[in-house]
Design goal:
The structure is a single chain. Helices cover 21% and strands 36% of the residues. The chain has 332 residues and is α+β, with helices and mostly antiparallel strands. Strands 3, 4, 5, 6, 7, 8, 9 and 10 form an eight-stranded antiparallel beta sheet that branches. The protein has a five-stranded antiparallel beta sheet with strand order 11-13-14-15-12, with helices on both faces. Strands 18-17-16-19 form a four-stranded mixed beta sheet, covered by helices on one side.
């Protein structure tokens, strides 16, 4: 197995980390496409080889088509068509010979409530430079669109700060403009919610401290720039007005734009532009419930049936000129 941490190899191409999903789609345009999955934007194609191992498909995932691919996945075929018992050593031995001893190894049995094919019974991970490579062996064979697979090979680019550089630079320009506008903010309203809001960040559960981004400001800002498209730093003059459980609504550009701000993060809403706004009230059941409002890339949370968050919604829907429907559910 020949593995280089600065790129990933597929269909005879060595593709450097940093290429956007759109660029990878262009490189692999002649490969047989498969239906994309949900979640992050992704590209799936049929693939017969993964670093020398028989494979069935390749998948690349990115926060957006215009942003770098951060993870690739190979579905690995079983050793033979007649294979019924899956031995992790078939893949693990060669990986260990090429990459050295794994940094992490875990084994588990198939839970009584789960199907073998839906379970992972062996997992080994290697941290190599800025890349994390993980072998996951299934408890049974999986039938996928591209064929039968027995394991997955996951390769992730862990250098979020490097990946986010152009997007962080863009955010800094937009945040400077937002700061200038904040000094002429009009129609400012502050709402005190019952729950403390949180800054946007992404936990990394591969680390001993998954919440490291809360202590590393550059990492947190890089995550926000990479994983979100419209979320910006709250201007200092607005930030200083807000406690951690407060939300500000204010207008700028002759009241053609509304800004929704927490102590940390802000999003700009323009009327009559169409924005992704989702309002959900989860009533107590087994859990305590809660209310949430997703305004583009900013998420606000409060207690269930919150009149205070409902007031925020009313102000926003008055500005955008159409009602925001509240979805209701129970906290099971």
């Amino acid at each position: 197995m020949q593995f280089e941490s600065r790129n990933f190899s597929v269909a005879g191409h060595k593709i450097a980390w940093g290429k956007t999903l759109t660029e990878v789609e262009a490189i692999l345009r002649y490969e047989q496409p498969l239906s994309p999955y949900g979640g992050w934007p992704n590209l799936r194609v049929k693939c017969k080889d993964a670093y020398g191992f028989p494979a069935t498909e390749f998948e690349a995932r990115a926060p957006a088509h215009s942003k770098p691919v951060m993870q690739v996945i190979f579905e690995l075929a079983p050793p033979s068509e007649r294979c019924r018992s899956i031995k992790p050593n078939y893949w693990a031995k060669e990986l260990q010979e090429s990459l050295g001893n794994p940094d992490e190894v875990s084994r588990s049995r198939v839970p009584w409530f789960a199907t073998p094919s839906g379970s992972v019974t062996y997992c080994a991970a290697w941290n190599i430079d800025d890349v994390r490579l993980t072998l996951s062996v299934f408890g049974g064979l999986r039938e996928n669109e591209a064929g039968i697979s027995a394991a997955g090979l996951f390769i992730g680019w862990a250098n979020v700060i490097e990946a986010a550089k152009p997007f962080l630079a863009r955010n800094m320009i937009l945040e400077k403009e937002l700061e200038i506008n904040s000094h002429e903010a009009t129609d400012l309203s502050i709402f005190k919610l019952d729950r403390k809001q949180e800054p946007f960040y992404s936990a990394d559960y591969h680390l001993s401290n998954p919440d490291i981004a809360l202590k590393n400001e550059l990492l947190r800002l890089s995550q926000r720039a990479l994983y979100k498209s419209r979320l910006l730093e709250t201007p200092p003059i607005i930030k200083d007005m807000l406690n951690k459980n407060e939300v500000a609504l204010w207008k700028m550009d002759r009241e053609t734009k509304m800004v929704v701000s927490t102590h940390w993060d802000s999003v700009i809403i323009e009327a009559p532009a169409i924005h992704k706004i989702e309002w959900v009230n989860v009533l107590p059941a087994k859990g305590r419930g809660g209310m949430s409002l997703d305004a583009d890339d900013l998420t606000l949370r409060d207690v269930h049936s919150s009149e205070k968050l409902t007031s925020v919604v009313r102000h926003i829907q008055k500005f955008i000129g159409h009602p925001i429907q509240c979805k209701k559910d129970f906290d099971a």
